[in-house]
Amino acid sequence: MATRIGSIVLPLLAAVIWGVIAYRAEVDTTRRHAVDNAVLVGQYLERMIQTQTVIHSAVRVRAETEDFGFLRSRRFHEFLAGLEKNNVSMRGVAVIGTDGTFVSTSRAFPIDGRFGPRAYLDAIAGGSELFIDRIKLELRKEDAFVVASPLQMPDGRVLVIVSAVDSKLIGDFLKGIATRTGDIASVMREDGLLMIRNVPSEPMMLPPDAGVRKAIKVDPVRGWMTTVAATDGIERLYAYHKMGDLPLYANFGTPTAAVTTTWLKRALPVWVLFAAIGLFAALTANRLRQRMAQRFELETAHRRVEAAEKLADERIRLMRETNHRVKNNLSLIVSLINMQMRGKAGIDGNELKARIGAISRVHDLMYQAADGVHVDFSETLREIAYSPAIVPREHGISVICETETGIVLGPETTTPLAIIAAELLTNAVKHAFQGRSAGTIRVRLNRKGETGLMEVSDDGVGLPEVAPRRSGAAIIDALVQQIGGEISRDSGAEDMSGEGRGTFGLRMRVSFPLPAA
């Protein structure tokens, strides 16, 4: 199932990732295209305006040293007409008073008259050094771009030099730039007046919240954004570019729908390829799954046979190990009985019961262990120490058990050590508190390097000067030797543990090697 899902999901995921990357690449390509075209429009307009400013400089040089009467002469008219004749794109050049009165023009002589308010006249009168507008010319009603600049006369009078360029030439250039359906190339004045577009339209003042005006506030030189056009309501990706020191911006935009369409045309063949790959992968995965299922069934059957054989071998091994362990324990019990029988007192049923109980408890803990063999001896020692069968409660003897956890031992050490602990506790109960109704037995277990230490001490009477040899001592010595350990006996000495417990009656300390980690 996972293979089948993967064969479908992975090609689908790859198609989605590739689609996102391809769309971003298409947006980036469109943005670069828009930026390049905006720069191209700006360069064209800059050259055109620069040509007009050169003409204005020529008029200014010719007129600034003459009086006002010269400006109204035929000679000056012919000078202006010569300037226009050398530039076929021009639609006239004139000198006008700031009140709208004609002074001289390249198109007619003599000329008299006055026209209504013009934005460029107000701008020059207000101190502007250069103003660009799109208007209908007064004389021939031609649609033109006009460039206006001031003319300072020797008598202090300020006149206006105005030159006009055919708007159709600019419009045709913009059409040549914006060749794709929906593309828009335009020229905007820095005050927000959309002067001309590649489609026939009148000048339009864009609102302050228009996308391009908001973008210009962030970066007044160049930039790009996605916005809905105020002119036709179409969302486009726009780039804008300021034309040097001129108060104009060149704009170019491509509809986002066109970006999406182009992206889909490019992405569809790749998606079909991914779909084919996914279908092929799904079919291949299905066949592979069937083969794997067959192989899995064969391997499962083979593993079942091997598991059955292994289980049979394990059961045989466990049976042998159990029989061997039972045999060892029975041998140990027989040895314990023989030692007591050789003693003068004969067999003590309670002592034998305690020793066999210790062996039984060790086996209980081993069966509960994770591996059925190794046990934490601290738990075993605590259960033996607090067992009422070994330390009867009616004797008034208190047991304090201080054990370090994590001392894990196997059966070859746990069983003898448990019997040693039971034997030491039993001896303490029987002999340490003669003539007393109460006492304390302290049991400790800890490690020191690679050696384990078990200590059983009491605050009883201690050993007599001549201690009789008992069967219990022989059992302890034999078991200590069996586990490769050592035993020491201290009687009536001061407790050197540093815990301020004074003296003790008898302390039995068994040291034994710990198994390698």
Automatic annotation (TrEMBL):
Domain Histidine kinase/HSP90-like ATPase: 412-516
Protein name in UniProt: histidine kinase
Organism whose genome encodes this protein: Paragemmobacter aquarius
Enzyme class: transferase
Family matches, as InterPro entries: HATPase_C_sf (IPR036890), HATPase_dom (IPR003594), Sig_transdc_His_kin_sub2_dim/P (IPR011495), Sig_transdc_His_kinase_HWE (IPR011102)
TM ranges: 268-285
SUPFAM superfamilies cross-referenced by the UniProt entry: ATPase domain of HSP90 chaperone/DNA topoisomerase II/histidine kinase
CDD domains: PDC2_DGC_like
Chemical reaction(s) catalysed: ATP + protein L-histidine = ADP + protein N-phospho-L-histidine
Domain Signal transduction histidine kinase HWE region residue range list: 321-398
